[in-house]
Every structure is written in C-alpha cells, then in structure tokens.
Amino acid sequence: MVSSDHKELKLIDKASVEFSRKELHQIRERNGTDVFCPAYNAVVEKAWELDYFHVFLPDTVGGSGPDLTALCTILKNLCLEDSSLAAIILAGLTSFEILLASGKEDLLKRFTMNGNQSSDFLIGFPLFSQPDESGNNDLIATLEAGNHLLSGSVDYLVLGGLAKKGLVPARLEGEEGFVFFLIDLTEAGVTLGEQVEGLGISACPVCDVRLNSVPALPCCLAGEGRAIYDRVSAKMSLALSAMQTGIMKGSFRDAMDYTGMREQGGRKTSNWSEIKKILSEMAIKVQLAELLVSQCCISTKKSSEHWQASSIATSISISEMANRVTSDGIQVMGGAGYMRDFHQEKRFRDSRHLMSAFGMQQWKKLNFLEQFVPKSVK
Amino acid sequence: MKAGEQMTRDLASPGFAPDFDDITSALRAISKQPGTLVKEAREIHKIARAFTEQVVQPSAALLDRAATDDPSYLPWELVEKANEWGLFTMFIPKIFGGKGYNFSCIGLFLEEIGAACLGITTLIGAHYLGFGLLISSWNLRLVNRIAREIVEKEKEGRLCLMTLAMTEPDAGTDAQNVEFMNEGNLACIARRIDGGYLLNGTKIFISNGHLSTWHVVHAYTDPHRASENTVMLLVNSKAEGFSLGKKENKMGQRGCPASELIFKDCFVPDDLVCIDNEQIKTLKRNPLKTNEQVFAYIWGASRTAVGVFGVAAARGAYEAALKFSMDTSVDGRRLIDQEWCQSILSRMYIKTAVARTACFEAFQANALHGLWKLMNHKPIYYAARYTPSPVFKGLYGLLNSKYATRLIRKINLDRQTDAEIDRVDGWGSLVKAAGTDAGLENCELALELMGQAGVRRDFGMEKIVRDARLLQIYEGTNEINRLNVFKRLIKRNCPDSQVFSRKTV
Questions:
Q1: Less CB within 10 Å around the terminal CB: N or C of chain A?
Q2: pLDDT in tens, B141-178
Q3: Are β-strands A165-172 and A147-158 bridged in parallel, bridged antiparallel, or unpaired?
Q4: What is the dihedral of CA B374, B375, B379, B384, to 10 degrees?
Q5: CB-CB under 8 Å, B71 with A32
Q6: What is the Cα–Cα distance from A316 to B358, expressed in whole angstroms?
Q7: Counting Cβ atoms within 10 Å, is residue B393 exposed (0-12), middle (13-18) or buried (19+)?
Q8: Quick check: is B116 in a domain?
C-alpha cells in the first residue's frame, strides 16, 4: 500500500488524498453535530462517480478489477479527514461481496451498473454484529407458497434510512445456521426506526429495522451463510484495518502540527521528551499498521494459505493500536484535543466505533484460536 | 566484589524505600478520626444516591442531547434542581452557614453522581473547586463573605456558583506549575492601581463559567516572573470589564459548560483580593514557595476529587458491561455465564476498587495535612457539628478581622511542613492519574465487550467514554501529574535529580 510503485495505484493514492482534503475536510467542518448529515449524500454520489465503490469489484459486474490494495489505499486516505464515507463504502461493499460470494453476480449488476443515486446502488448491512449474536438479530424466514417471508428485527442496520435495499442474515424456520436475504426496505411490512446516533462515524446512517412478513430473496443455500460471512468478513476486515490506519495517520499528523506550534515553558511542546516519547510511539504504530496492511493485501491477493487468519489478526491488532493512537492524539493536544473544533476527538470516537465492525472485539479475539490456529498449526 | 553483587546491594538500598508517613495516611488517620464521621458519610451517600436516582439518571442523556443540538445550551434547570437539593452548600462548613458535611467524605458523593453522569458531577465538583481555591488562600474574611452569599441565595431559591479560572489560551500547564510560569505565555495581567487591581486577559476551559456568580482568578503582576508574582482575585460575573466569551464545544461532559472568561480593564477592589504578595509578607516562606504551597493545597484536594471522577467512570463502565453481559447471549449462552466474560468483569471491578481505595488514602492525606485538616481536628469537628448556628453568628466579627486571617495562615501555611506539602500534592497527582486511567481502561474494556451496544447512544455506554476522556486532561494532564508524583514522592530518594526543568527535556 505505501511502498507500491504501481503507477495507477500512485494516481489513486494522490487522487483520494486530494478528494479527502477537498470534500471531506470541508464537510467535517460543517457537520459540527452528531446528527446524521444529509449533505453527505452528495459526497457519497461523488465517490460513486469516482468509482470508489467499484475498485474492489470484478469487471464482470462493472468494476475495475478486484484490487484490494487500491481499495485499502482509498479508504485509508478518506479516513485521514473523516471516516463516515469510508464506513458507508465498507458497509456497501460488504453487501456486494456477500452477493458475489453467494454467486449472485446478475443480481449485483442491477446495483453496480444501473444506480443513479446513492439510495439506488447502496445495500444496507448489519455491519456491527456477528450474524448469530443473539439480541441483535432474531429474524426468522418462513416459506409460504414458494416465497420467503421475513419477520423479526435487525438492530443497527448500517445504511438503513439511505439505501432502498438491505442484505440481512436470517434463520430458516426449523433449521440451524443462517441464510443471507435481500429485502426491499420500502416494502409495506418494513418499519425503519429513527436514525441511531452513535459514538462515531456520525454521518454514516444507521437504523433499527422491524420486519413483518416481508418478502425476501435468499442469496445462498441453507447452511452456507456462516462460511460466506467468515470469508467476506475476513477480506473486509482488511479494508477496516486500512481505515483505522488512516485514522491513526490523521491523528498523528494533527498531533505533530499542534505540538510543533504550541509552547510550554517557553519551548515547543514537541521538544519536551515526554511528548516526544508519545509522538514516537504514535509514529511507530502508524508505521507498523501500514506495513501490516500492505503485507496482508499481498497475502490476500495471492490467496496465501493463512490470508484469513492474517487479515483478522491484523484487524484486531490495528484496532487496538488505533484506539491508543487516537487517545494519545488527544492527550498531546491537551484541552484543545478534547474540543470538537480540532477534530482529534472525532478520530478517538471513530476508531472505537469501527473496532466493533464485524462483531464484538472480545468475541473476535476469543474465536481466533478456534477459527484459525488449527489450520495454521496444520 | 563481583559486579552482580554490587548491583544486588544497590537495589536493596533502604534509601529508595518510601517514607512510612507517605504510605500510611489512612492508618494514621484512624485515631484522629471523629467517631461520627462514618454516620455522616452514610448520610452523604444516601443524599447522593437519592439525587442520582431522582434527578441525574432521568436528565443525564437529555442534557447531553440538548447540548449537542444547541452548543449554546446551558443546564439551568439541572443547576436549579441541585440548588433546591442544597448540594452547593453541603460541604460549606457550618461556621460559614453551610450544612457542614465533612469534605473528606465528598468522594462518596461525587462517585455516586459521577457513575451516572460525569458531566453533572463535574458541574457540582467545579463549584467546590472554586470554593476550595478560595479556602486555600486562607482569606477568612472572603471565605466567610462568599460562603454566606451562597447560603443566603440558596435559601432564597437563587443560584450562586463559583469557578476556578486558571487556564489561558496560550498557557495550560504553564499556569499550573511554578516551574513553567516564568518562561510560559501567561497573559492574564493584574496591574496594581489605587484601591485594587486592574485585570486584563482571557481564561479558557473554565468549568461552569457561564453559570457562576463568582470567579476565583489567577493573574500575574509580572508575567516574566509570574511564579513569585501571582495574585488570586475574586471577580463577580456582573463586574464592569468582565464578559463571557464562547462556550466550548466539547466531546463529552456536555452537561457542564466550559467557558471563556474575558477581562478588559476589569477593576478588582482590594476587598476582593484573596491573596497577593502584600498579604503574605509576614509568612515564613517566600512568595514563590507560598504560591507553590497554595497550589499544592488546592491540587491535593481537587486532583483527588478528579481521581474519584475516574473511579466513577470506571464504575459506570463496569455497571454498563455487567448489565449487557446479563442481557446478551452469544453462542447460545449468556455472556455472564461465560468464564472469559466473568474474568473481564472482575478486572473492571478490581480496577474500580483499587482506584477507590487509593483515593481514600489521598483523602486521608488531605485530612491529616491538607485543605480540610482543621475541620477534621476532633475539637473543631465536634464544635462545628454540634454548635447551634446562632452561636456562629457571634463569630462574624472575628472571622472578618484581618487578625483571624493572619492567624489561620500562620497555622495552615507556616505550620505545614515541606514533607506534608509533598505528601498531599503527591497523592493528589497519584490518584488523579491512577483513577482516571482506570476509568478510561474500563471504558475500553466495556466497548470491547459490548460491540454495537457499546457504541450506540441509546445504550449510554458511549456517553461514559466521551465523558471519561476529559478526566485525563483537566486538573493537569496525567503526564504532568505523573511528573508531579516524581517531584513530590520520588525525587527525595535521588535528590540530585531534576524535574519540571529544561534540563530534563
């Protein structure tokens, strides 16, 4: 990601930094509150026009090739300034990836090749929970006259309220495991809750959804849901790591700028060894995160034997690094770091919020041994 | 002798062992403790719990919401409710007309409220911070005057809150440590003129600034030698030349406003000067040392209180995680029934309990040697508690005399030893850093455990995280407080070392 000399990648890198600085920096200034910001629609559509949703998709569905490195580069650069757009892209692409992994290319084309506005092409997804985590998802699918009907609730549907469609995991009545279903969020039996406000990524729309006998299209066979989710979440966890890396980089950059200007005891604060130590530790973590993401991109592209384990381990570790870096980013700026005017506090909130993408951090850690280590040892 | 043997002997050096008195404040306080203090503590705890259940819990999220929707929002309703409950006079000694609850029990009060809302506990705590700073000047006449105004207004259903005004736009740490003052960018200038001082400058991040009647302001008669030319002035919010600037847009603790105070040719008459070099010239320490001592008095108390805020954050996060674990099943079993989750909850409980115990030790250090030493002295404690209020009225004249202030300063400033200053200030910093770190660590654990429930606003945990993050910053960053622990509690074991010095950069 950082060391690539690929010409096209360099252009993507430069263009996304510029987009982030021009589009997101400005809207970040305006979006002073935590309330969902409708102005973000325009930014999402610009990102669509610039193919930020397509770089990761194969050309058979209108994409520009499944380039994970390009996607990670874009997401990292967007998060230098603001993470909400990247979170929208992450949720949208996770839905797309699940459709692809389920062999639903034709269905996916309807979204990727025909959408005119963000609500047409985006598909909502419950990004912040494991599909079998109780309390977050108790959807049941019943079969009536050959059609599946979904009833129950989906908590925290990301892009809910913006996207017209949603991709949700549900249990088939009387069967184990779960299946992904595509639903129309404008159907009569769908009740969308109010926008759920959260700790971070405030411009990324989220809502709770209640379904009452809503027609749904199954996207995979019974029993396939878990394997598809594990594969897709491992891949998208790498994109999440890139986002956290961008957040860390932005936090470090602003901390350096501030401590290079601010004086304490007649000297620049960056010259005091305690502050230097903190800044150095931040820099080490940023460097390490970039390296890990780069290596994982290579490993995933090559479909190396342990790519899933590497991606998940990287994501868990980088999220913890990002939490530390963004907290330090506030600390070295003192009171200013805590004030909304300086945007460091936003990174603190965003990194913690994103840590819970694809489920509880502690649960991800606990499952790692069972999911991946036997394969690695073998 | 081999190198290894030399090393073993050096490491066992008794010179590095902590001083007995430095680690036994709670133990040494036992015999000096008034017997009814526990009963009093129970009363305080009961009041705090009732206020939390009836007022804080129903309004915490609403305050946060209101201040998010409208950054200029001020929590008047909440403050008036706290005033009706008598919370702003609870810890004002009876001799000054207050309810006279003992300051060493304020931790129980603050933790109870803070576990439900750190913004509201800061709002109430900041009032006592202002009052505490006024006390640390040991200007009895002014303490008596302001305390009585607070009490009288409370009786009339009106508000009279106080603030401490220290931080400046270009001077945070510089304004808190005498070592940094002379080379810092302090710009709040008090110029001596006939009958008082003319005050110019700006203070920022002042908790309760927009709500308060009285501001205790640190200013400097010579900013280039500020460490020995500091004055403490009382400014009324209606004073000519005083105005309120912007209200800060904070990440959390949004129920407690952080304000900008602006002084433009603001005249402060002599009778509102809490302490200046003229008033301390008969004391045994020089102006720099006295200034440092006054800071130590207030930091010893206020940083201990912030340590308690940290305990409250740790407890709030623990309670949220516990509830979530009881309500949530993963893999077909409730989290609370899974060993790994029990271990995390226990870690959170341990962090909370250890930090609370450390704060108790610091409160006892304050009770033995710090801000409320006199009020904990048994004869004074019992006299203050059981003497009918009308009797105190007969003491007004005495309290207002300059001789009483001179005497009380002799007792509190001259008789306090350097070791006692180190202990009180050192323990204040110790528990401030330990308590607030524990608070944020528990928040991180709760977020890791709770997943999406932890980050959504309607579950409440995310507010605790936003609120708790401020604790590691105000009352001196934890970095500064850790260095202050070195200065006050470690440096004596390596006397040739430097701290808060350009040489340590």
A1: C
A2: 999 999 999 999 999 999 999 999 999 999 988 999 99
A3: unpaired
A4: 140
A5: yes
A6: 33
A7: exposed
A8: yes
Whether ipTM tops 0.90, in short, is yes
Q: Is residue B274 part of a domain?
A: no
Which domains, from first to last, does chain A contain?
7-123 (1.10.540.10), 124-223 (2.40.110.10), 226-377 (1.20.140.10)
Q: Could you tell me if residue B327 is inside a domain? A: no
Give the gap in angstroms from C-alpha A352 to the nearest C-alpha of chain B. Answer: 8
- Bridge partners, A263 (sequence order): A268
Strand A123-124, strand A165-172: pairing: parallel
Nearest by CB to B448, which of A265, A278, A360? A360
Domain-located, residue B383: no
Tell me whether residues B179 and A265 touch, CB distance under 8 A.
yes
Confidence of residue A317 (pLDDT cuts 50, 70, 90): very high
- Contact call for A199 and B452, based on CB within 8 A: no
Note whether B504 contacts A361, CB cutoff 8 Å: no
Q: Is there a contact between A32 and B68 if contact means CB atoms under 8 Å apart?
A: no
Contacts of A272 in chain B (CB under 8 A): 505
CA distance B69 to chain A (A): 7
Q: How many residues does chain B have?
A: 505
Q: Which residues contact A321 (CB under 8 A, 6 or more apart)?
A: A244, A248, A285, A288, A289
Q: Specify the amino acid at residue B139.
A: N
Report whether A345 contacts B251 (CB < 8 A): yes
pLDDT at B212: 98
Q: Which of A110-119, B1-10, B233-242 has the highest mean pLDDT?
A: B233-242
Q: How far is CA A34 from the centre of its chain?
A: 19
Contact B160, B213 (CB under 8 A): yes
Q: B92 lies in which domain range? A: 26-161
Which residues have C-beta within 8 Å of that of residue B254, sequence separation ≥ 6? B63, B64, B67, B68, B119
- Amino acid at site A140: I
Residue A54 has pLDDT above 90, yes or no: no
| Per-residue model confidence as pLDDT tens digits over A61-107 | 888 877 899 999 999 999 999 999 999 999 999 999 999 999 999 99
Q: Which of A266, A352, A360 is opposite residue B183, by nearest beta carbon?
A: A266
Q: Using CB atoms, which residue from B250, B344, B457 is nearest to A198?
A: B457
Q: At A121, list the tokens.
A: 């092409």
Amino acid at residue number B445: L
Kindly give, in sequence order, each residue whose CB lies less than 8 Å from that of residue B278, ignoring residues fewer than 6 positions away.
none
Phi, psi at residue B490, to the nearest 5°? -110, -40
Contact B323, B316 (CB under 8 A): no
Closest CA to B174 of B186, B165, B188: B186
pLDDT(B343) > 90: yes
| CB-based contact, B68 to chain A, within 8 Å | yes
| Rounded Cα gap, residues A346 and A348, in angstroms | 5
Q: Please name the member of B330, B462, B477 whose beta carbon is closest to the beta carbon of A331.
A: B477
CATH number for B74? 1.10.540.10
- For the four alpha carbons of B290, B296, B299 and B302, in that order, the dihedral sign comes to negative
Burial of A196 (0-12, 13-18, 19+ CB in 10 A): buried
A338: chain B residues, CB-CB within 8 Å: 250-252, 469-470, 473
> Residue B452 is nearest to which of A128, A132, A339, comparing CB atoms?
A128
Within 8 A of A198 by CB-CB distance, chain B residues are 455-457, 462
Show residues of chain A in contact with B342, CB under 8 Å.
none
> B327 to chain A: which residues are within 8 Å by CB?
135
B-chain residues within 8 Å CB-CB of A156? Answer: 452, 456
* Mean pLDDT rounded to a whole number for chain A: 90
Which tokens in the block code for residue B104?
């060493």
Q: Could you give the CA distance from residue A118 to residue A202 in angstroms, rounded to a whole number?
A: 17
